[in-house]
């Protein structure tokens, strides 16, 4: 397959002013009529009209009213070319597609009998011939025609301008989007659905109609999505002065969806997972996910839709920025400093769990990639989460107000345009009179930078010297890296645990400073430092780097008890835990005795019971680094040893802190009706973490507590926590509980997903058990949520079993990637990535992993998606 390079960008040969689309919707045979008014692009030397189209049957093609003869255009399986086209052309195109046959969930497809579309990144070309690239922006008018009984609801982007009956049992709706947009933002829905709706007053006095559309029986689960939408609109008005620009804004939930949601103009289409919630079926995590994703898609209306990407290499222009915006939104919704810190901690966890490994593996790529084979493979944690970190660093450098000025300038300059990541950086730099030239390297260089810190205190001179050195490991195609521009926040703690005042070069910085590391190595000297301090480095995780500093246990314990920066307070605990987990892992592998020191246990005890701290923070501070984070620290990965080491630590905590865990279990009850607010969710989180630790050290009393919670739970958060505890404790009651859980929720697809994923990720579940679960009547390989809940949860979420010594996990993986690829390449390719880091495993595992990869790679009908991923893994 062909590699596409960023540097080969050419402007489109023709621009499209207007698009009129007509759909005669039929699952077996949908006719799409398109009328495009086009004109030659003065910025292009090309004379031909070039349209993309895949899996389409061309029925008719007219230009300026005349049918084009076979010699007047060229067509292959990807493009339709009309050479020597006139300056202005009106094209009329008729094509046929078969939505019911479309299992890729890309383009126009059928889910549970209803029609939906997904066009980003290149789905529109599966609907009709079009210059399907984001720098072609046009005004769309859409006419939908369909059977009235089957599809009473007909939706598309923008405003409804006409609807009515067609007589023959069919009806129509005509929609007009007043804003020009690229084709990837087109959407339609034709379905039997119901909606919750309200009118909502916008800041300028206009009223907007807000709707959340769901399948019948789900109207009791739309409140939180609606509330989140209203909060998002308000937040964007207040924080960025950005208003909803349409009279109507719709969210539609669909059960078959490849990712989380899609920001189609005025018609966001969502995975049901990010819409449907009530206390009976959704957990606190689900509620938080809904708020974040509703916010994310809404915020795209400005960062993505009004200002879009010139080409797909610029994807992070909209994604990194919009993730940053949704993170800030969620943090503001909590509203407390400590809540903000907890959300920051969760962001750091995601980065370490998923982005750092990506940046260190075969698929490593810059935030703005230089090449790709399949763009859908580049909707990654690097483009999204690292992209958000890059935006966050800009805010750290220019300040919150400066950032707002930069945003204002960005919109003033680029509203209605398709632009590059550089344009965003330039607006930020210009609005603030800052040089962000070196900062560009965050967009162009892949890999996680390592910052090494060394310190020395001169008691005589009362100076404290911090030396920072940075480096970045090679990544595919990038052997050597230039130094990054790194905002590095620091504080210094005195022996009493308080922050010391900071003076650098005679300038006072209060008790916290943001240093700017620009060179490979740089020295910072703090003066008037009265005592040898404990450094608190990279506060608030001010840059997405790996920090190396030789902290002593005593220093970490000091920070864990006192750091005024909650993120670093948490970080100190993670370092204490990680050092011990690595030792334990080595001990397991060597067959040595496993031990955990009192000092560490006591530090956890103190944290657990410190009622002056929010429960949500204490939960974070007591969560251990995951198995994959531990793996990331090791030269050679032995998944079973890691698992046993971590289990040992959990069990020891459960045993040693038993009384304290029970006490916190009781102290953090949330009586009264369920509310997903951060305070209540935090208390439930801590309570259920206590339960999980108790389950790691099973005893009749501990298991009885889990059983009692399962039997009496008043909400899904408590119910799944109890079920998880029973499963992990291998309690006798576990299988009964699983059966009851299924019976109670078998008609709630999202809960059945939980039922599958809890089993898939359980330590006792091996490949044979997963195969058994796949035979369950509720398993459906065509439904991405179901596949993620079982196959992904096992391959990516149960490392000790997936990496079974006999290689059975790898054979299973190869089989599933192959089977999925035939149906849905995007989903298959995500699963393929669970073998990315095969080279780091113990030699006995490497060989069967490589074999499995090779087996997939030689598949005859492999998609570009999977081919790129396994090809890069094997390079
Ligand atoms: N922009 C979409 C992602 C589309 C993925 C295409 N494979 C969702 C989002 O980031 O909001
Ligand atoms: Zn997005």
TrEMBL record:
Residues annotated as domain Aminopeptidase N-like N-terminal: 23-185
Domain of life from the UniProt record: Bacteria
Keyword Protease applies: yes
CDD domains assigned to the protein according to its UniProt record, in alphabetical order: M1_APN
InterPro entries recorded: Aminopeptidase_N-like_N, Aminopeptidase_N-like_N_sf, PepN_Ig-like_sf, Peptidase_M1, Peptidase_M1_dom, Peptidase_M1_pepN, Peptidase_M1_pepN_C, Peptidase_M1_pepN_C_sf
Its EC number(s): 3.4.11.2
GO biological process: proteolysis
SUPFAM superfamilies: Leukotriene A4 hydrolase N-terminal domain (SSF63737), Metalloproteases ('zincins'), catalytic domain (SSF55486)
The UniProt record lists the keyword Hydrolase: yes
Keywords from the UniProt entry: Aminopeptidase, Hydrolase, Metal-binding, Metalloprotease, Protease, Zinc
Enzyme's top EC category: hydrolase
Name recorded for this polypeptide: Aminopeptidase N
């Amino acid at each position: 397959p062909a590699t596409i390079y960023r540097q080969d960008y050419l402007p489109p040969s023709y621009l499209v002013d207007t698009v009129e689309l007509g759909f005669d919707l039929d699952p077996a045979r949908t006719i799409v009529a398109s009328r495009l008014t086009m004109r030659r692009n003065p910025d292009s030397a090309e004379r031909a009209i070039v349209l993309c189209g895949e899996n389409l049957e061309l029925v008719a093609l007219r230009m300026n009213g005349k049918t084009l003869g076979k010699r007047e255009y060229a067509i292959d399986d990807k493009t339709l070319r009309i050479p020597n086209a006139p300056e202005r052309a009106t094209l009329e195109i008729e094509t046929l597609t078969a939505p019911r046959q479309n299992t890729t969930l890309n383009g126009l497809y059928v889910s549970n009998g209803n029609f939906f579309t997904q066009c980003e990144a290149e789905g529109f070309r599966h609907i009709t011939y079009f210059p399907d690239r984001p720098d072609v922006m046009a005004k769309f008018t859409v006419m939908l025609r369909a059977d009235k009984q089957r599809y009473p609801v007909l939706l598309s982007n923008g405003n409804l301008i006409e609807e009515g009956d067609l007589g023959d049992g069919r009806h129509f709706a005509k929609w007009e989007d007043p804003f020009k947009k690229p084709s990837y933002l087109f959407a339609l829905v034709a379905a039997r659905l119901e909606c919750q709706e309200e009118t909502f007053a916008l800041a300028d006095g206009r009223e907007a109609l807000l709707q959340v559309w769901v399948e019948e029986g789900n109207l009791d689960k739309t409140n939180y999505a609606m509330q989140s939408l209203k909060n998002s609109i308000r937040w964007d008005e207040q924080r960025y002065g950005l208003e909803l620009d349409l009279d109507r804004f719709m969210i539609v939930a669909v059960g078959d969806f490849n990712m989380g949601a899609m920001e189609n103009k005025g018609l966001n289409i969502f995975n049901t997972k990010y819409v449907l919630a009530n206390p009976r079926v959704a957990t606190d995590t689900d509620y938080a996910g809904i708020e974040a994703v509703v916010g994310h898609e809404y915020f795209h209306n400005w960062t993505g839709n009004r200002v879009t990407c010139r080409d797909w290499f610029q994807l992070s222009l909209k994604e990194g920025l919009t993730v940053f915006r949704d993170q800030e939104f969620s943090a503001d919704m909590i509203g407390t400093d400590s809540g903000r810190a907890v959300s920051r901690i969760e962001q750091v966890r995601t980065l370490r769990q998923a982005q750092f490994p990506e940046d260190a593996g075969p698929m490593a790529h810059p935030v703005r990639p230089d090449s790709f084979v399949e763009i859908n493979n580049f909707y990654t944690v690097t483009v999204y989460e690292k992209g958000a970190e890059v935006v966050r660093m800009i805010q750290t450098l220019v300040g919150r107000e400066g950032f707002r000025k930069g945003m204002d300038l960005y919109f003033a300059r680029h509203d209605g345009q398709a632009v590059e990541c550089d344009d965003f950086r330039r607006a930020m730099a210009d609005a603030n009179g800052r040089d962000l030239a070196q900062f560009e390297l965050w967009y162009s260089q892949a890999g996680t930078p390592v910052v090494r810190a060394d310190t020395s205190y001169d008691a005589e001179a009362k100076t404290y010297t911090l030396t920072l050195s940075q480096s970045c490991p090679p990544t595919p195609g990038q052997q050597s890296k230039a130094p990054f521009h790194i905002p590095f926040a620091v504080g210094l703690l005195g022996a009493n645990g308080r922050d010391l005042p900071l003076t650098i070069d005679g300038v006072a910085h209060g008790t916290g400073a943001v240093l700017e590391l620009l060179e490979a190595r740089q020295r910072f000297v703090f003066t008037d430092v009265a005592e040898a301090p404990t450094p608190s480095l990279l506060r608030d995780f001010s840059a997405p780097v790996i920090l190396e500093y030789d902290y002593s246990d005593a220093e970490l314990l000091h920070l864990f008890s006192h750091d005024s920066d909650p993120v670093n307070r948490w970080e100190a605990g993670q370092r204490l835990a990680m050092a011990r987990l690595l030792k334990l892992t080595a001990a397991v592998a060597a067959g040595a005795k496993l031990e955990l020191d009192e000092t560490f246990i006591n530090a956890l005890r103190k944290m657990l019971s410190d009622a002056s701290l929010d429960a949500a923070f204490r939960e974070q501070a007591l969560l251990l680094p995951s198995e994959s984070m531990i793996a990331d620290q090791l030269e050679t990965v032995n998944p079973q040893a890691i698992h046993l080491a971590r289990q040992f630590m959990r069990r020891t905590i459960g045993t040693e802190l038993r009384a304290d865990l029970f006490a916190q279990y009781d102290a953090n009850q949330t009586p009264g009706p369920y509310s997903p607010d951060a305070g209540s969710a935090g208390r439930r989180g801590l309570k259920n973490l206590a339960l999980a630790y108790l389950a790691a050290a099973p005893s009749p009393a501990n298991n009885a507590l889990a059983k009692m919670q399962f039997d009496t739970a008043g909400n899904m958060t408590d119910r799944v926590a109890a079920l998880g505890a029973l499963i992990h404790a291998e309690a006798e009651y576990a299988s009964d509980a699983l059966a009851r859980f299924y019976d109670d929720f078998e008609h709630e697809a999202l809960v059945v997903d939980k039922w599958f994923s809890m089993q898939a990720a359980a330590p006792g579940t091996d490949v044979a058990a997963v195969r058994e679960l796949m035979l369950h009547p509720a398993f459906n390989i065509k439904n991405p949520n179901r596949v993620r809940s079982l196959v992904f949860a096992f391959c990516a979420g149960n490392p000790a079993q997936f990496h079974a010594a006999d290689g059975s996990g790898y054979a299973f993986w190869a089989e599933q990637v192959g089977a999925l690829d035939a149906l849905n390449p995007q989903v298959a390719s995500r699963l393929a990535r669970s073998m990315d880091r095969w080279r780091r495993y113990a030699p006995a595992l490497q060989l069967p992993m490589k074999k499995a990869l090779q087996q997939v790679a030689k598949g005859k009908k492999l998609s570009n998606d999977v081919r790129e991923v396994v090809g890069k893994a094997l390079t």
